[in-house]
Amino acid sequence: QTVVTQEPSLTVSPGGTVTLTCASSTGAVTSANYPNWFQQKPGQPPRSLIFSTTNKHSWTPARFSGSLLGGRPALTLSGVQPDDEAEYYCLLYYGGAQPWVFGGGTKLTVL
Amino acid sequence: QVQFVQSGAEAKEPGASVKISCKASGYFFSTYGVHWVRQAPGQRLEWMGWVNAGSGNTHYSQRFQGRFIITRDTSASTVYMELSSLTSEDAAVYFCAQEAPGTGVWDSWGQGTLVTVSS
User: Is residue B9 within 8 Å of residue B118, measured between CB atoms?
Assistant: First the structure.
């Protein structure tokens, strides 16, 4: 069973920069895994931020960016705002019997 | 504007089935796929399955094989999920989410439907 692991929690100061990553138990992630990133606040559905590793939706704030760092998808927030405090999930595609697997989520605290 | 509206909260007894709807608007329904994802209290998101709204083809997580069915009604722009033989472990919020087939691009999500399972 494929496992996708994220940092359980991170803390960042307002105005700072933070990078969240996502590791696959199968090894290096590539663009063929279609990395997606979502933001979820308590009591709300997830909101899609990034697709296909680096691409932003029309509603994604400019301070969010996606990349691949050493075979791991990464989500970088630059100029963090208090409103960015949330849980962030990555999602990877593997095909086969279990095509989509979510990471465990990173709780981002802005303090 | 793309929007998904899900049906309301459900309270079920163990062993029962639950059926949840997800009504789409703001786009041509048959050109996209719809995923179902659930989230148990304090837990990570879990992918359950997917339907191609145009063809009706489905793909289910092995974890739910045999007791999970996704259907769609193109005339109503609505996707349904039905989960049977419920146990307390199925208590969760269930979400539908849109993906353009074969693109890996997830975008809009439904608001979620809370399912409680208790005798």
Answer: no
The answer to whether B95 contacts chain A (CB < 8 Å) is yes
User: How distant is the alpha carbon of residue A45 from its chain centre?
Assistant: 15
Reply yes or no on whether the pLDDT at B102 is more than 80.
Answer: no
CB atoms within 10 A of CB A89: 26
| Dihedral pair phi/psi, residue A106, rounded to 5° | -120, 125
B104 and chain A in contact, CB less than 8 A: yes
Query: Are residues B107 and A104, on separate chains, in Cβ contact within 8 Å?
Result: no
**CB-based contacts of B113, cutoff 8 Å, min separation 6:** B6, B7, B8, B9, B10, B20, B93, B94, B95
**Chain A interface includes B108 (CB < 8 A):** yes
pLDDT in tens, A24-67: 999 999 999 999 999 999 999 999 999 999 999 999 999 999 99
What's the confidence (pLDDT) of residue B2?
87
pLDDT at residue B76 greater than cutoff 80:
yes
Contact A58, A51 (CB under 8 A): no
Chain A, window 14-53: residues with a beta carbon less than 8 angstroms from a chain B beta carbon: 34, 36, 38, 40, 45-48, 51-52
Sort residue A80 into left (φ over 0), alpha (ψ -120 to 50) or beta. beta
Q: Give the list of residues 6+ apart from residue A11 with CB closer than 8 angstroms, or none.
A: A108, A109, A110, A111
A3 secondary structure, DSSP code: -
CA-based radius of gyration for chain B: 14
